[in-house]
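Bug: token stream looks shifted between consecutive jobs. Job 1:
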Amino acid sequence: MLTLHIGNKNYSSWSMRAWVLLKQAGIPFQERMVRFDSFEGDSQFKNEVRKVNPAGRVPVLVDDGLAIWDSLAIAEYVAERFPDLPLWPRDAKVRAQARSVVAEMHSGFGALRTHCPMNIEASLAQVGALLWRDQAAVRGDVQRICEMWTGLLERHGGPMLFGDFSIADAFYAPVCMRLRNYALPVPGVVTDYIRRVCALPGVKAWMEEALAEQDFVAMDEPYRTAR
């Protein structure tokens, strides 16, 4: 059976992408959570993860002794491992577009990711309001995301970005968490998409388990002193 190594569900956005993809697609897997304590080279987290990934990062998917790290590599491996599942759109041109928007998430939106770290448990509207006022790059990232999602939903008819659930929706699920929890201003079509993503069984299960962790990792919450 596949084994997926992840970080704290409340904070680990990259882990969420791989986990939600497997869960929502109905692919059986075992989960192994490695708690965040520090990202320093000698931290318990790093030492534990290096046992399966020399880079010391999560997520890591292990299949019969083969370790695949990086969420995009995991997504591509799973799509090839389970070709009967429509994890990418079937049409070649649509599939290329889906890969493009996933790659944009994988390498872009640095301001949103830096200033709005994922925290599913927290209500951060006040933090979000200050960031919206002061961080033009955050506003730029949100504008691009809204334009992208609106265009895709209109073109493919929803309810997900490419019609049915795909790798693209798994990759943007943590963005939905950020937009929601920081209460960043988005148009109604985007708000509706966020609600649909949050209602997906795989996303809902991740969120519920994140709330159940009852863990506070200070390095992931520079905006408050306790949970």
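Job 2, same session, no restart:
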Amino acid sequence: MQIDQGKLEQFLGQVVGELGAAMNAALVLVGEKLGLYKAMSGAGPMTPVELAKKTNTDERYIREWLSAQAAGGYVTYDPAKQAFELPNEQAFALAVEDSPAYLPGAFHIVSAMLKDEPKLVEAFRTGQGVGWDQHDVSLFEGTEKFFRPNYAANLVSSWIPSLSGIEEKLKRGARVADVGCGRGASTILMAHAYPNSHFVGFDYHGPSIDSARQAAAKAGAKNATFEVAKAKDFPGAKYDLVAFFDCLHDMGDPVGAARHVHQMLNPDGVWMIVEPFAKDKLEENLTPVGRVFYSASTMICTPASRAQEVGLCLGAQSGEARMRKVVMDGGFTKFRRATETPFNLVYEAKP
């Protein structure tokens, strides 16, 4: 084996950076769960003693945590004052839960992936699936926390307005199904924005539906209800809008789900499909964002599909062409990309 020493050193340097980032995932969770980022937000320079006192934590642990955060650029350090500060930009991403850039939820997902690694190793060997319900609870909490800010920033302001005639229907009063709703973040956001409409969130995962009901009650979303049901058999009268948020690619039989949506829509209804941003060719997705999506797809999305009937395994980077085929095979005649963000593609399908 011939080794290029320069390339080896370059790769090792890359790995060292990634090791630090991987280890920092646990520290971000510590910071979120103990309220350390929130305590530092807008507080200016703080010593470990001051932060420990403010958060009722141990100073020695806090000093080591702050040192690691400073080494990673999450906080700044002033040697003269021996104090640490959380810049506003980092605070916006780490301490402000309704910020569109709020990130700690992603680290809960990372935690679940690491905890579930033994299950995935076995799945790689056997080809069997690992269902969504078989993952660590951190995945359910993390998914809600990670996706909710993005939905809050885009769903009502740009995604729904991009659909043909749907916004006016929702303002007047419409029936909406939110399929694969998880803990109900998207359903509740829509319910608040359009009080004249009625929203039903469906998910096959019972504990998530229980959480969604509690969240809706807490938020006062009386026009939102939640039921346990699968994408291929969710009930109800005809809907004006059916929404799938970041879930169609997880399904074992997305074509079967498309057929059921087609049956459940009014003739002038719309199916809104929100998916991770992806281009059609693998080489076009080999980016930092693509890496995140492919990694999550390896550990979560593909195993979820494999655990279900058919097991089509679209993956989180399926791209527009494959999504179009799934939708058209399900009986729809119209399909278009309605809008997009750097992280999502929003498709509109009509009967």
